[in-house]
C-alpha cells in the first residue's frame, strides 16, 4: 500500500514548543483524520507537510519524493483547503480562477465548471460576499480542478452549520469513490471524522500518540465505568486516566481485553468517542 505522506523522526522547535520525533504515514486512497487539541502541533505538522516550514531534523516525503528536488512536481499534485480565506476578496471567483489556472499544468476547465455548477457557486460575485460555506466549496473546487491527488484540509468544517458540514462530508465521500485521491483532514470537530475517516492520527503535546484504522480504536480503547470500590493502586495503573466522583469512576483504557479480564462484568465497558479519547489522553498527560 503506497504512502502518500511519510514523516520519519521529524523534530521542530519554536521557543517552548517542540514537535518531537514524529514518524507517521498517510496511505493512498483513504481519508486520514488528524486530531489533537489546540497548540499540540497539528498546524506545525501541516506546514511541514506543505513545505511552509522545514524540519530541524528528520525527513519528509510526499508521493515518495522530497521537496528539495521535486517541490514544483509535488505541489502540482496537492490541493489545499483552509479554514480561512486564501483568495483575493476584491476579485470574483472567475477572476481568481484566471489567476490560479496558469499555475497548474493539469488544470481542467470542464472540471472547474462542473463543480461550480454542482456547488452552485456564483462566478461573478466578489469573493468577499461569499459565506463560509461558499468559501469552502470554492477552495475545494480549485483543488479538484487541477486533479489534485492529495487534498489537505485544515479545519475545513470549523464555523459551518451542521447541515452544511454534513453536505461537505457527503461531497468528500463521493470524491473518494474512484480510489485515486487521498484526503488528510485536520479538525477539532471529531464527530465529522467518525462519519468518514478511514484512519485517525492523534497528536498530543508535540508527540504522535497513534495512527490507527478507525475501527481499531473501538476494538482497543474502551471507556470503563464502575464503583470506586474496584479501584486501588494496582487497578488504577491499568487506565490512561480516571475521573472520579461520588457516583463512581469513569476511565479510559487502551487495552479493552485486559480490562474485561480483570473486572469481568463488574464494570460497564463502552466504546469511546474520539472526543472522549482526546479528553482522557490530555487528562492523563497532566
Automatic annotation (TrEMBL):
The keyword Transport applies. This is ABC-2 type transport system ATP-binding protein. GO terms for molecular function: ATP binding. InterPro entries: AAA+_ATPase, ABC_transporter-like_ATP-bd, ABC_Transporter_VariousFunc, P-loop_NTPase. PANTHER family: ABC TRANSPORTER ATP-BINDING COMPONENT, ABC TRANSPORTER ATP-BINDING PROTEIN ALBC-RELATED. It holds the Pfam family ABC_tran. Keywords: ATP-binding, Nucleotide-binding, Transport. The keyword DNA-binding does not apply. It comes from Caldalkalibacillus horti. Residues 5-230 form the ABC transporter domain. The lineage of its organism: Bacteria, Bacillati, Bacillota, Bacilli, Bacillales. Transmembrane segments: none annotated.
